[in-house]
Amino acid sequence: MRIRVVGAGTMGRGIAQWAVTAGHTVELADARPEAVADAVSFVRAMLERAVEKGRTSRAAADRAVAALVALDSPYDSASDPAADGDAPELVIEAVLEDLEVKAELFTGLERVLPDSTVFATNTSSLSVTRIGARLADPGRLAGLHFFNPVPLMKLVEVVPGAATREGVPEMLAALVADSGHRPVTVADTPGFLVNHAGRGLVTEAFALLEESVAGHAAIDRIARDVLGLRMGPFELMDLTGLDVTASVMDTVWDGFRHADRLRPSYLPANRVAAGRYGRKSLRGFYAYGEGEAGPSLPEPRVEGGDPARAVRVTGAELAELASAAASPDDALVLVPTWGTSVATAIAESGLPAERTLGVDPLSLGTPRRVLAVTAATREDAVRDAVAVLARGGHAVSVVRDTAGSVAQRLLASIVNVATGIAERGIAAPADIDVAVTLGLGYPRGPLAWADTVGGARMCSLLRALHTETGDPRYRPTPWLTHRASLGLPLSTPMPPLPE
Ligand code: NAD
Questions:
Q1: Which of 3, 52, 47 is nearest to 28 (CA)?
Q2: 258 CA distance to ligand 1 centroid (A)?
């Protein structure tokens, strides 16, 4: 296919590299001619590197380089004369993220290119429908949302606008699949699929920080070791840039008319104003640059506890932590928290407050066990409980008492947001899981992840969080509660209705 890529910045050059590698002819244009020259050198260098590393053959790289055509202007009507002046069948725009700029570009292209040329926008936050509405023929435009770096990030969101003609999204999805990436079709809604699904983790991480449940480094360690995420939420925001993350959080929350589940924290605004973006400004949640440890900070340790202190547990999930002998009067009491707090367990069951602590059952069987302390826990009880939990070589995190625990709340939020996406029909359940694993790098898709914990158990977690906090953020979606009641996997699609 002959594809014109307009905008030769970070995304445009990535899209061009991906497309020429897949065998397409790519015309590259930009408002700044030097950007095109830079992008052509960039793609050449990337292909050269691929040859050196044995990932592609010399002949294939030469063919790909020859298929890249630099244009003087985005509005060239007779494109490359060497290619018989063929018009592009598709234009992908990756210019400035501004509705006016994008609309002006497409209306200009509409005047010089044949009616049959399909238009695609790589916008990450604008409405595809609103961009299309500025065209004489809105039916020819759809969203084609790539991720950075394009050749490595295999996911592409195909976003039909409200007026997109039938056949256009299908053509784009087929092109993406035939060119080695994975298309998912997503409704034209704020954040599309990946940026919407990603709100679950980061908004909840900020909620935990707001409530002083734990510091950012502790939350990151728990996210990595208990949930198996490659990066903790704060480490991830430092990489993405907090300015970018904060703006996506606000856009998605505003776009969904302040849905509680997507509610952002007050915390990022001042950090952004202070330039604490993350890696790119060398200061974020962590410090970067020479001599700085970044997220690999040494972990504070609680030392000197007695690993043999007697332990009584109040739930079968914690049986492995109980002492075999009869419990003396000063035994530690460990309660499993599942959407509930230690304080509530103490009050409801009359437990000794100074030596009762919580353990996150989700953390058992992972490299890190998570202990919750209340305002009444005695210091010796904390030290001994840490020593008990550390037996067998486990890392131990100590966090403050909250409904649930850090990992539970992060997972509950990820799952609840994802089921909200499914419920709104924004994407098919299977595509939600694929998009989250490919686009966000989570170890599992959120629906499949919830199924490994158990739909009913996930539902009881969210119900308990909702009851204990009263916060509508934790109200489980009907998608989740109904499937849990029916004993069906959360990936079960909506039943079709008669027309
Ligand atoms: P960038 O700043 O790196 O590149 C934009 C390029 O567009 C520049 O070279 C600029 O000269 C050119 N440009 C601006 N106005 C133009 C016009 N009217 N005509 C022709 N060229 C013009 O930006 P980017 O990061 O590549 O982002 C481009 C688009 O892709 C944006 O819509 C952005 O939201 C979207 N996007 C970005 C990412 C990302 O991670 N960077 C991911 C997905 C989508």
A1: 3
A2: 28
* Tokens 């939020």 belong to residue: 413
- Using the CB atoms, write b or e for 280-290: b if 16+ within 10 Å: bbbbbbbebee
In the chain, what are the domain boundaries?
Answer: 2-188, 311-405
Provide φ and ψ at 290, rounded to 5°. Answer: -60, 130
Measured by CA distance, the residue closest to atom 4 of ligand 1 is: 9
> How far, in whole angstroms, is CA 416 from its chain's centroid?
14
Q: Which are the catalytic amino acids?
A: 124, 145, 157, 195
Give CATH superfamily name and number for 2-188: NAD(P)-binding Rossmann-like Domain (3.40.50.720)
Ligand 1 atom nearest the C-alpha of 8 is: 9
With a 6 Å cutoff on the Cβ, whether 71 touches ligand 1 is no
* pLDDT by 10s per residue, the chain, length 499: 999 999 999 999 999 999 999 999 999 999 999 999 999 999 999 999 999 999 999 999 999 999 999 999 999 986 554 455 689 999 999 999 999 999 999 999 999 999 999 999 999 999 999 999 999 999 999 999 999 999 999 999 999 999 999 999 999 999 999 999 999 999 999 999 999 999 999 999 999 999 999 999 999 999 999 999 999 999 999 999 999 999 999 999 999 999 999 999 999 999 999 999 999 999 999 999 999 999 998 998 888 999 999 999 999 999 999 997 777 889 999 999 999 999 999 999 999 999 999 999 999 999 999 999 999 999 999 999 999 999 999 999 999 999 999 999 999 999 999 999 999 999 999 999 999 999 999 999 999 999 999 999 999 999 999 999 999 999 999 999 999 999 999 999 999 999 8
Residue 125 contacts residue 97 (beta carbons within 8 Å):
yes
Span 311-405 CATH architecture:
3-Layer(aba) Sandwich (3.40)
* 11 CB near ligand 1 (under 6 Å): yes
DSSP 8-state class, residue 492: P
